[in-house]
Design brief:
By secondary structure, the protein is an alpha/beta fold. It has one domain: Alpha-Beta Complex (Protein-Tyrosine Phosphatase, Chain A). Helices cover 41% and strands 13% of the residues. It has a five-stranded mixed β-sheet with strand order 1-2-5-3-4, sandwiched between helices. α4 runs antiparallel to α5 and α5 runs antiparallel to α6. It is globular. The N and C termini lie far apart (36 Å). It comes from Roseinatronobacter alkalisoli. This is TIGR01244 family sulfur transferase. InterPro entries: BLH_phosphatase-like, Prot-tyrosine_phosphatase-like. Keywords: Transferase. One of its GO terms (molecular function) is transferase activity.
Length: 141
């Protein structure tokens, strides 16, 4: 498992498995967000399987499937609400962590500087520069 901390309270990861959940809980995360649509993956790592393991560990599980190249404002709003509603650190996962980084950045537009929203994910190889115009538009309201 490769957890990449974008902030003190938000991290992203490539696909997790039910076996990873104990380590996620031990790392102090209280909420896990699935940003991966079930249609991309086999049943053993689909949202139901991961969600059961997460909830059995006493953590909150949120499903917010993000389709690559088709991120919606509903995805952005749901990610922001999950962050606001969490009582501790959040781990979001998808195939590589990229989509989880993008919806995080878009949900934080106007709350953090645009350069920061692009530079932080870039440390982990996530290229959010193409989202600069959208981030700036969202920041303006």
């Amino acid at each position: 498992m490769d957890i990449r901390h974008l902030t003190d309270t938000y991290a992203v990861s490539p696909q997790i498995t039910p076996d990873d959940v104990a380590d996620i809980a031990e790392a102090g995360f209280t909420t896990v967000i699935c940003n991966r649509p079930d249609g991309e993956i086999p049943p053993e790592v689909q949202a139901d399987a991961i969600g059961r393991a997460v909830e059995e560990a006493g953590l909150r599980f949120i499903i917010n499937p993000v389709i690559g190249g088709a991120i919606t404002m509903e995805n952005v709003t749901a990610q922001g609400a999950a962050l606001t509603g969490s009582d501790g650190p959040v781990l979001a996962y998808c195939a590589s962590g990229n989509r989880s980084s993008i919806v995080w950045a878009l949900s934080q537009a106007g709350q953090r500087p645009t350069d920061e929203l692009i530079e932080i994910p870039a440390r982990f190889g996530y290229a959010l520069e193409p989202f600069r115009p959208t981030l700036e538009q969202l920041a303006r309201g």
